[in-house]
C-alpha cells in the first residue's frame, strides 16, 4: 500500500500541520485501514461458516442416503427369501398328506435348486475344495492326513463344511482336511 504522504507536495503540507493535526490524519488513515481489514475478515468468516454448514449438510445427507440404500437392498433380498420360505411351507403341508416319497424328494430338490439360484443371483458362490491346493486365504484346515502320493501333498482331500464367497470376499470359510 502506498503511503499518501510521500510526494514532495504533500510532505510540505505535512510540515505546515501541527502535531495534533498530524496525529488526526494518521488516526483517520489507521481507522480506514482497520475498517477495510474488518470488512475482509467478516466476508471471509461468513464464507467459511457457510461452506462449513454446507459440508455438514452434505455429510448428513449422504449418510441418510447410504442407510436408505442398505435398507432397500436388504428388503429386496428378504423378499426373495420369502418366496423360498413359501415353497418350504407348501412342501411341509404336502409331506404329511402324500404317500409318494419320490414326489416329496423331487419337491425338496426343486426348492433346493431355487435357493441355490437365489444365492447365485445375489453374488454368493460356493468355494471349490476337493482336489484344490490348500489356500489359507480361502480354506480352514481342520486336520491333516498322510498324502497318498507326491501330487496329493498340500491338496484338499475332503470337505467337512462348504464355504461361500460374496463376490470376491469369503463370507464363510470351508472346513477341510488337507493331505500332507
What characteristics describe this protein?
Nucleotide Exchange Factor Grpe, Chain A, domain 2, elongated, 6 strands, three-stranded antiparallel beta sheet, alpha+beta, 59% helix, 180 residues, three-stranded mixed beta sheet, disordered N terminus
Task: Explain the overall architecture.
The protein is an alpha+beta fold. Strand 4 and strand 5 form a beta hairpin. The chain has a domain at 124-180: Head domain of nucleotide exchange factor GrpE (Nucleotide Exchange Factor Grpe, Chain A, domain 2, Roll). Helix content is 59%, strand content 15%. The protein has a three-stranded antiparallel β-sheet with strand order 1-4-5. The chain has a three-stranded mixed β-sheet with strand order 2-6-3, with no helix packed on it.
Quaternary structure:
single chain
Biggest sheet: strands side by side, in what order?
1-4-5
CATH fold annotation of the domain at 124-180: Nucleotide Exchange Factor Grpe, Chain A, domain 2
Report the mean per-residue pLDDT as an integer: 85
* Estimated share of beta-strand residues: 15-25%
**CATH architecture title of the domain at 124-180:** Roll
The secondary-structure element order is HHHEEEEEE
Compute the separation of the termini in Å.
84 Å
Query: C-alpha Rg, in Å?
Result: 40 Å
- State the helicity in percent bands: 55-70%
| Tally of helical segments | 3
Counting helices, strands and paired strands, the structural category is: alpha+beta
Characterize the main sheet: 3 strands, antiparallel
- CATH evolutionary superfamily of the domain at 124-180: Head domain of nucleotide exchange factor GrpE
Overall geometry: elongated
